[in-house]
Design goal:
Elements (H helix, E strand, L loop, with lengths): L2 E5 L3 H13 L3 E5 L2 H10 L4 E5 L7 H10 L8 E5 L4 H10 L3 E4 L4 H16 L7 H8 L15
Parallel strand pairs: 1-2, 1-3, 3-4, 4-5
Helix pairs in contact: 2-3
């Protein structure tokens, strides 16, 4: 079971997508603005975010760029979710850092399979570390912590 956050200004679409993902066995919640999505992920990091590309206020692409620039959320899996059509929109979302792209109206099976694909790619990845720690470890400035030895009594 994954924790999924949906950010979409269309409440009906957000509720339908939420129900599809809950029926697939995931915990799911939704918000209707980019600002609210940022507040939610700041309090509790989801396993994946389904993000509407075109919302009033902070657009999905703007929020995605903010996420990718954040040391805390740079590796949060994001699937763009939009009614926009065209290769240009998909390219813009992927260029901004989305892992996948789902067009609305959506097919429930397609939505769940795309979410599963994104989750399966992140499942084998190590636990999230903040960007500063990740860069320090990968450059050799700090070493990996020694594995904990079991204590016998």
């Amino acid at each position: 079971m994954a924790h999924i956050l949906i950010a979409d200004d269309d409440e009906l679409i957000a509720e339908l997508a939420s129900q599809v993902l809950i029926d697939a066995g995931h915990a799911c919640g939704w918000v209707t603005s980019g600002e609210d999505a940022w507040k939610v992920i700041s309090k509790r990091r989801p396993d994946v975010m389904l993000l509407d590309q075109d919302m009033p206020g902070m657009s999905g692409v703007t929020l995605l760029r903010k996420i990718r620039q954040s040391p805390k959320f740079y590796d949060l899996p994001v699937v763009m979710f939009t009614a926009m059509s065209g290769v240009e929109d998909e390219s813009q979302a992927i260029y901004a850092g989305a892992q996948d792209f789902v067009r609305k109206p959506f097919d429930p099976r397609s939505l769940t399979s795309r979410i599963q694909r994104v989750l399966s790619k992140t499942r084998d990845r190590p636990q999230h570390t903040d960007l500063k720690t990740y860069l320090a470890r990968s450059s050799g400035l700090i070493s990996e912590p020694a594995p904990r030895q079991p204590r016998f009594i």
